[in-house]
Each structure stands twice: as C-alpha cells, then as structure tokens.
Specification:
The protein has helices at residues 8-24, 30-37, 43-55, 72-82, 90-99, 106-121, 174-188, 193-210, 213-227, 240-246, 252-264, 266-276, 324-343; strands spanning 59-60, 69-70, 124-128, 137-146, 149-156, 160-167, 235-238, 282-285, 297-306, 309-319. With 344 residues, it is of the alpha+beta class. It folds into 3 domains: 3-82, Winged helix-like DNA-binding domain superfamily/Winged helix DNA-binding domain (Arc Repressor Mutant, subunit A), CATH 1.10.10; 90-131 and 233-343, Beta-Lactamase (2-Layer Sandwich); 137-227, Enolase-like, domain 1 (2-Layer Sandwich).
C-alpha cells in the first residue's frame, strides 16, 4: 500500500487525474483517464478505482458532468505524497537574481517582490511589509501652512524622513512652532517614538499643574504630530488580473469576495502571521486556510529574513488547480534570494 492507504494503482491514477485537471480545468472522465494513464487495465477497473477515490473524499462529481475533479483533500494528498516538483530553469533563477539585486534599497526589493512572484508563477503575488523594530526620533520640525494647519517633518532612525500635515487644536505663530521644535529635539531626540508619546502625556499633565502655557503648547503640537504617525502598508498584492484570467464565469462572485478580503486585510494578515511563525514553505489548500473566502483557492508562502532575523512572508494565491510542481519551488527560491539580498 502507498500514500494514505492507497494502492499503487489508485495513487498513480489520482496523480494522473490531478495533473489532467490542473492542465485542462475540466472534470476528468474514466475513458480519458484510461488513455492518459496508459495502464493495461479495463475501463471498468478505472471506474471502480475512481468510485473508491470519491467514496474516500479525494474526488467529487460535479452535477453537470460524469467526470470527477479533485477535492481539497485530494489536492492535499497529491501535494504531500504524490507531487514531483520540477527543477527551476536556470534562466528563471538568473532573472530572479537580477531583480533581487543586493545593490537595490531594501524597500525597493520588498515592494517589487510581489510583482516578481506574479511574473514567475502566473498567480497573484503577496508580500508582507516588515515593520521596523524601532523608530527612533532624530529631529522634528514644524512649518506653518495656513490657519491652524502645520507641516510636520520627522527624521527617524538614521535617514528616514516622514512628512505629514496636522490640524492644530489652536493656532501657533511661526516663532512658537520653532520654539516647540527646539524644545522637543532637545528633550526627546534619541528616544523611540512610542516612548516619546508616553513621555508627552506625562509632561503635559505636569505642565498643566504648573500652568506653563508655553511648554504645554509645545507638548500639544508634538503629541498631535505623533498621533497621526503613518502605519506602514501591511502587505502588497500584485497580479489580481491573473486570477481574473483563470476564473470562469461561475467563479466571478467568489473572486469578488476574495478581492474584498484583499481590501479588508484582517483575515489575510492573520493567516500570513501564522505563516511567519512557521519554518519553510507553507501550503493551505481551500478551507485549510480557515476562511470561507479562500475555499476555492490555495495559498503558498515562505518566510524571508534579514540576516538571521525573520522579517516577513511572501507567497502566492491562486486557484486550487494551480501548477504546484512549479509554484512551490519558485516561492521557495524567491524567499531565499530576497533573504540573501536583504542580508548583504
């Protein structure tokens, strides 16, 4: 007996049927499977094996066809035990290396990774954006715009500059804004932004107790600047059009729900967070992901790192009948090359 208690014949027929369904996207009938398999058995034997595979939950019969299609359970057995991955073409590896060149800025490498995955796998690419472990305040500057609107220029970490516009609760003169910036820089430069926010709240309470209006004004404008700190984009999705190209007319409603999930982000972020805590390639087929919206899709991910520190996850989302033998090694090598580029 072979995988999951299947006989070698049943395992071979299941592998052939899955390959045919991935390639053609249609239910597979016993006659076609008999020809494709090349087995020297009768068509009746093929039908019996297919019926047994259906009874065991590996195949299902669409209402409109006498043929069978793999279930999520069938795909899982195929991926775990029957799949033979294809070696990656050297030209494809070189193309990946060219795009993931260590000389490029880290932000560019990560931003382009989702597009790169889409190009090499023909699925939708997804890459989480690493959050900086710390954002250390180097310098702050306030420039008056009009009325109570102020441009805040924040320099954090070594060279990162963030610009944002805030609306003050009360107007301040240019001299007051300069005085506020000088006060904040002298008092808080070198501290993490999260710490600065906590210190501001404490200092404001003390300033009110001393009725120090000038100090309170400086603290207030700094707090308003910190409160609108921009959150980094949590993940980047590219290649949604690839999913549209592969979808049938009957799939469009499910595809719209998936696109809505891309916009909501919460469910996908939870799934990707689970992947980030695991080692190596992770594969979720259909309902295994734990979300109804992904019932007809598979998610394949791999973590990437900077040095020895894992910082994010990349992967693809596509129909359950994707070409796993190509996609799995491509996701794996892309994560390895991105890690190598970020680590240099």
């Amino acid at each position: 007996m072979s995988s999951d208690g299947l006989s070698p014949r049943a395992a071979s027929l299941l592998r052939t049927l899955v390959d045919m369904h991935i390639r053609e996207g249609q239910p597979v009938g016993s006659k076609a499977l008999h020809v494709e398999s090349g087995m020297s058995v009768s068509p009746a034997t093929i039908r019996n094996v297919m019926s047994d595979l259906e009874d065991r939950g590996f195949l299902s019969s669409p209402h409109t066809s006498a043929g069978r299609v793999p279930t999520a359970q069938g795909y899982r057995l195929f991926v775990d035990s029957l799949l033979q991955t294809s070696p990656i073409d050297e030209a494809a590896i070189q193309a990946l290396k060219n795009e993931l060149n260590p000389s490029r800025p880290s932000s560019d490498l990560i931003a382009s990774a989702s597009n790169l995955l889409t190009q090499v796998t023909a699925q939708a690419g997804i890459v989480t954006v690493p959050r900086p472990t710390t954002s250390q305040l180097r310098q702050i500057e306030f420039l008056p715009l009009s009325d109570s609107r102020v441009l805040v220029i924040l320099v954090v970490n070594e060279r990162e500059v963030q610009n944002r516009v805030i609306e003050l609760s009360r107007p301040l003169t240019e001299a007051q804004l300069k005085s506020a910036a000088d006060f904040i820089n002298q008092r808080y430069a070198g501290n993490d932004l999260a710490q600065v926010k906590e210190l501001l709240v404490t200092e404001m309470a003390e300033a009110r107790a001393r009725i120090d209006e000038q100090m309170e004004a400086a603290l207030q404008v700094a707090k308003e600047a910190m409160d609108v700190e921009d959150s980094p984009e949590e993940y980047v999705v590219a290649g949604e059009s690839r999913l549209i190209q592969q979808a049938s007319a009957n799939d469009m409603d499910k595809l719209r729900e998936l696109f809505d999930a891309f916009e909501r982000k919460r469910d996908l972020l939870e799934l990707l967070d689970r992947c980030s805590r695991a080692d190596g390639v992770q594969i979720f087929i259909g309902e295994e992901a734990g979300y109804e919206v992904l019932g007809d899709y598979s998610v394949i991910t791999a973590p990437y790192a900077q040095g020895t520190q894992p910082v994010g996850v990349l992967g693809v989302i596509g129909p359950t009948r994707m070409a796993y033998e190509r996609v799995i090694p491509l996701v794996d090598i892309t994560a390895r090359l991105l890690t190598a580029a970020l680590s240099r």
